[in-house]
Amino acid sequence: METLRRRAEILQEIRLYFAQNNVLEVDTPLLMPFGAPDPALNSFVSKPHAELVHALHGYLQTSPEFAMKRLLAAGSGDIYQLCHAFRAENPGRHHLPEFTLLEWYRLGFDHHRLMDDVEALVSAIVPTMNFARRRYRDVFKAGTGLDPHDASTDALSAAALRCNIELGDAGDDRPSLLEALFAHVMVRDDASRQALFVYDFPVEQAAYARIDAGPPAVAQRFELLIGGIEIANGYFEVVDPVEQLARHDHEHRRRQYLGLPAVELDPLFMAALESGPLPACAGVALGVDRLVMLSGQLGSVSGAVSFDPFDTN
After folding, report:
1. Staple partner for 176: which of 33, 93, 170, 275, CB 3.0–4.6 Å?
2. Does residue 172 contact residue 180 with C-beta atoms inside 8 Å?
3. Residues 81, 15 contacting (CB under 8 angstroms)
């Protein structure tokens, strides 16, 4: 009950922070007609009873990103949402298939200003937290001896082998290698409770972040990690609809390469971007359960929620 009360306090603090900063709370559907294109995200498919005349099916959202961007394109201004999200991954210490996500977008912000925003919010919840910022390149090079922007894929594969990282069929996929090595470095080298922003990722991990031509060229995004655990993932957003479509095509090709099901791009999302347009903005998603876990110094995210339906012990 103490944890439930602390969780309720944190949700109140989140809403108070955004109210004080004139950020509008919004609500979008959990069940969407299209899944997540990101190859790293696996969607749950929802199917109705077979006897229904109109057999609809949908996807439980992995995040409210695309629905919220439709609101941004319609002129909503700064917005945030507290909601449940779903990702088809095995439950673990830091992950539940159903979890609480906080996502928000700030107009006129780049990823640096959004890091300031994230730091202010987390500091309001955990006042004793210390923050630091480091470029991805510096973190990766210190942990592996390799420059992530120009190391060959063979060199990355060799580094993964030395670290006993097994990627199976994705062993020669450069984005997967970078992600796995980065995670290995963070878990090994950042076991403290310090909050670390890592920013300016390799372009192979750009997803829907803008790219700074450099040199070196970098994706203008960041992650916030506390004790090596990812808490938030933010982007200086791509707003051009042509570039958005190109990014989706890139994600689609990666899904094909990795043997994953194809995911159609939501035509209503693209129509909103073309008619809007999407204003210049930065957006971030933050794992609320993980923040509650760290705030209460709990052993796992299952201790930060009311029920863990996958806990059969």
Report:
1. 170
2. no
3. no
- The pair of structure tokens assigned to 277 is 């347009």
DSSP secondary structure string for all residues of 195-247: EEEEEEE-GGG-TTB-EE--SSPEEEEEEEEETTEEEEEEEEB---HHHHHHH
In a domain, 312, yes or no: no
User: What residues pair up with 232 in beta bridges, in sequence order?
Assistant: 224, 286
The pTM for the full model equals 0.92
Torsion sign (Cα): 183, 185, 191, 194: negative
**Alpha-carbon torsion, ordered 7, 12, 14, 18, to 10 deg:** 170
Cα distances (angstroms) measured from residue 142 to each of 108, 137, 283: 33, 8, 28
Query: Token pair for residue 62?
Result: 């992995």
Structure tokens at 185: 């470095």
Span 180-217, pLDDT tens digits? 899 888 765 555 568 999 999 999 999 899 999 989 99
Task: Provide the residue range defining the domain that includes 32.
Answer: 2-304
| DSSP state string for 121-182 | HHHHH-TT--EEEEEHHHHHHHHHSS-TTT--HHHHHHHHHHTT---GGGTT-HHHHHHHHH
Is residue 310 one of the residues assigned to a domain? no
Residues whose CB falls within 8 Å of the CB of residue 219, separated by 6 or more in sequence, listed in order: 200, 201, 202, 203, 205, 206, 207, 209, 210, 211, 212
> Looking at the domain assignment, is residue 313 inside a domain?
no
CATH code at 46? 3.30.930.10
